[in-house]
Every structure is written in structure tokens, then in C-alpha cells.
Amino acid sequence: MRHLGEGGYTRQSIGPAAETALTMMGGSGIVPAGANELRAGLKLSMDTASRMARAKEMGFRTDMPLYHGSGTEFTSARAVPTNAAGMETPGVSLALDPKVANEFAAARGSEQTNPQVYKLLHRAERPTSLTLDGSETHGQVVEALRSAFDAGHDAVMIKNYTSPGGIKEQNIIIVRDANQLRSPNAVFDPARKFDPHLLAGVSGLSVVPTTLLGPGSSDKE
């Protein structure tokens, strides 16, 4: 396993990609002091262009949609902390390829739990990358992720990943904190940058999942 250091990841470095629905635990969701006062003074335009402009200013990568597969519906992801017991993968895992997210959603869900694939945007100020050679154990990958997050990185791209269902040579992204994720339908209120809610500011609306994919299908969004 090769650690690529501070170079982070770029749009050009990402091929068709992969991963997803972890058990979601922990996560801070801290809103900075003064956020309510700042929000009260803002009158935010809600057209798509304005929301995406704010998203970019907040650091969200609007040209890199990610997908999270879950066994149930949710409105706020919860990240696994780096000090979680055992070998749980820290952070929140996401796929660039919705078919991989679908694999995890289908595996974890049922007709009763209503599995979902969510299209999300993420922000990362100190991303880094890990490249797998296929010889790593799950424990080694978890330890490498914990080390990267403990060193101050807030997102890790794992390259050359193979999904449990056998989708090979994927790149997956794991963000450290749930507040790094937003639905594309979010307000993108700068005063709520550290809010873990996927919409963070839209009252009366819900997070809209991507349609769960059937065998051989692909996302058209």
C-alpha cells in the first residue's frame, strides 16, 4: 500500500469509481459561534446557480458527485470516529460510481428498510490518497486511514479498490466528518458550513435519493 502524501486528489486522477454504506456512528456536527447571527443577516438566493456558487465558495467539489448506499433512509450521515473499537472503517465512505453504492445499499437493506442510494457533494481542504496493491488486509487499510485522519487529513481517496461484489480498479473517497457532505439540493448557507444535516437550511424538504439501480443499469443524473 502506497501513501501519496499531501498531493491530494484531482478531478483528472479519478476514473470510474466506488464504495459506500458503512455503519454510521459518531460525528461532531458543530456549528460555529455566531452562526445564527450571520444567518439572520443573509438573504440567500435559492436558484441553482447561486446555490452552486456558494457551494464552491464553501469548498464543495461540485464537479465530483459522490454516491452513498444505505440500507435505510437518512437525513444526516454519521461518521465512524478514528478511535472506534475494532476494525470499523473510520469516516464516511462514498462511491464515484453509483453502481458500487447500489451494491452496498442492496446488501444492507430490505423491502422493510427501504434501501437508498444518495447523490452527495463533499468538501475537503486536506485530501490525500492511498493506493492499494491487493495484498493489504482490511486491518491495514483501517490503520492507514486512521493515521491519515489523525495526521490532519480530512478526506482520503483509496485507489485500486475492489468492491465486495467484485467491481475492480475503483477509486473510493472517505471523508472524516459527516459535516463535509451535502445534498446537491442543499441551501449551502455559509453560516451552516459545519452542520451535518445533508440539506442544512431547507425547511419542509427532504433529501432526495438517487433511484436504486437494477442489474446492469446506470445513473442518468
Can you walk me through this structure?
This protein has a single domain (2-26, 46-188), classed as Phosphoenolpyruvate Carboxykinase, domain 3 (Alpha-Beta Complex), CATH 3.90.228. Strand 5, helix 4 and strand 6 (155-161) form a beta-alpha-beta unit. It has a 5-stranded mixed β-sheet. Strands 2-4-8 form a 3-stranded antiparallel β-sheet. The radius of gyration is 17 Å and the shape is globular. The chain is an alpha+beta fold and 221 residues long. It contains 4 helices and 8 strands, in the order βααββαββαβββ.
Main attributes of the structure:
single chain, 221 residues, alpha+beta, Phosphoenolpyruvate Carboxykinase, domain 3, 3-stranded antiparallel beta sheet, 4 helices, globular
Provide a quick synopsis of the model.
18% of the residues lie in helices and 17% in strands.
Shape: globular
Whole-angstrom Rg: 17 Å
| Beta-strand segment tally | 8
The percentage helix is 10-25%
Order of adjacent strands in the largest pleated sheet: 1-5-6-7-3
Number of H- or I-type helical stretches: 4
The CATH architecture would be Alpha-Beta Complex
Number of domains: 1
Low-confidence blocks of residues = 11-41, 203-208, 215-221
CATH topology: Phosphoenolpyruvate Carboxykinase, domain 3
Beta-strand content: 15-25%
- Name of the CATH class: Alpha Beta
Please identify the structural class as seen in this structure: alpha+beta
The helix/strand series, from N terminus to C terminus, equals EHHEEHEEHEEE
Please give the alpha-carbon distance between the first and last residues.
Answer: 34 Å
Give average pLDDT, whole number.
76
Major sheet, described briefly? 5 strands, mixed
